[in-house]
Every structure is written in C-alpha cells, then in structure tokens.
Amino acid sequence: MRRPPTTTYAILGMLTFAERSGYELGKLIEISIGYFWSPAKSHIYAELRRLVELGWATQHEVEQDHRPDKRVYTITEKGHAALREWLNDPEVEPETFRSPLLLKLFFGDLMDPGALHAQIAEAKRQAEELLAELKAVEGRIEHEDSLRFPYMTLRCGLAHARATRRWARDTLKGLEERSAS
C-alpha cells in the first residue's frame, strides 16, 4: 500500500484530541495547525472517509435537537499505530513554499511601482496582524506543560511572521530608494 498523503496524518492526529465531526475538525484545525497546515474543507471530509476505509477511524451518527444529525469520527487503535509509525518515520519531507506575492515581485519590473509597493505594504500589514495573533496565543499556552510541543511549533510561526515583517520593511525601503534614484 502506498503511504497516504501528509494531510491524512494531520487529520488523524487531530482526532487524538477527541472524537469530532468534520466541521468541528475544520474549526480545530483553523486555530491550531491551520497556521502551517491548512487543508481545504473538502479535503477534510475526503480524508475522514479515507481514515474509515483504512480502519484508522470509526464513524457514528449523533442526533441533535435543533440541527441535522452529525457524523462523528473517532481514531482507532489501528489509527494510533499508523500515526505513531508516520510520526516516528525518520524521513523529513521537504517544506513547500508557494507565494503569489514573491512570484509577482520576481516580475516586478513589469509592474506598476505603486501597485508593487501597495502589495508589499499589505504583506507587511498581514505579517504584523499574524504576529499579534500568534503573540496572543503564546500568552495563553507558553506555560502549559501539556502544550509544550504546540508551543514549540508556535515559536516557528512567530519567527516566520517576524522575518516576513522584516523582509517586507526592507523590501519597501529598497523600492523607495530605487524610485528616488
């Protein structure tokens, strides 16, 4: 059997916290691993089906009074074993980085200088906003021993946001110097 994609293991790992519906998983991902691993909602449901097919999760219906019934997923022992095997695999997948902004900047000579400046300024604003958001999360979890590994992950996010902010600031300065000359 070919190894499932990393997203399969991400969803499986999220089920270790508690049984959840696809919607609940999406919300949990958004406030946790979603900062660095964010599958599309359609992928979440496809991966949940895959987990059930593999025997790594079970599903059952939960009745709700004022809403339609929901399907809830629970990790199985076989799922725990598969997750541990993946986690302990010494292979480190190379990180992928896609940035529409950097693609545009690469072709910056073809752009209107004002548009390029505005886009870099927006990237700086977004990095500052993310940095503030991550700092708020840091304040809530940095002293929680049970969250030491999520905290280590968060520190990488903080470093990345700071680096992006610094890069954007330096790039704006370079653009301004270039337009002045």
CATH structural class of the largest domain: Mainly Alpha
How helix-rich are the residues, as a percent range? Answer: 55-70%
CATH superfamily grouping of the largest domain: Winged helix-like DNA-binding domain superfamily/Winged helix DNA-binding domain
- Contiguous low-pLDDT stretches (5 residues minimum) are none
Q: Could you report the average pLDDT, rounded to the nearest whole number?
A: 94
Question: Tell me, what's the shape?
Answer: elongated
**CATH fold descriptor of the largest domain:** Arc Repressor Mutant, subunit A
- Major sheet, described briefly? 3 strands, antiparallel
Strand content: 5-15%
Secondary structure layout plus pairing:
Layout (H helix, E strand, L loop, with lengths): L5 H9 L5 E2 H9 L10 H14 L2 E6 L7 E6 L1 H12 L11 H7 L6 H29 L6 H33 L1
Antiparallel strand pairs: 1-3, 2-3
Helix pairs in contact: 1-3, 2-3, 6-7
Can you put this structure into words, describing what you see?
It is a single chain. The longest helix is centred in the C-terminal third of the chain and has 33 residues, at 148-180. This protein is mainly α and 181 residues long. It has a three-stranded antiparallel beta sheet with strand order 1-3-2. The protein has helices at residues 6-14, 22-30, 41-54, 77-88, 100-106, 113-141, 148-180; strands at residues 20-21, 57-62, 70-75. The protein has seven helices and three strands, in the order αβααββαααα. It folds into two domains: 6-88, Arc Repressor Mutant, subunit A, CATH 1.10.10; 100-180. Helix 1 (6-14) crosses helix 3 and helix 6 (113-141) packs antiparallel against helix 7 (148-180). The mean pLDDT is 94.
